[in-house]
Amino acid sequence: MQLGLIGLGKMGGNMRDRLRAAGHEVVGYDRNPDISDATGLADMVDKLASPRVIWAMVPAGEITEQTIDELIPLLSPGDVVIDGGNSRFSDDMPRAVRLAEHGIGYLDVGVSGGVWGKEYGYALMVGGEVDHVALAMPIFEALKPPGEFGFVHAGGVGAGHYAKMVHNGIEYGLMHAYAEGYELLEKSEIVSDVPGVFASWREGTVVRSWLLDLMSRALAEDPHLDKLKGYADDTGEGRWTVEEAIRLAVPMHVIAASLFARFASRQDDSPAMKAIAALRNQFGGHAVKSQAGE
Question: Which one, of 119, 102, 121, 104, lies nearest residue 56 by Cα?
Answer without folding.
Answer: 104
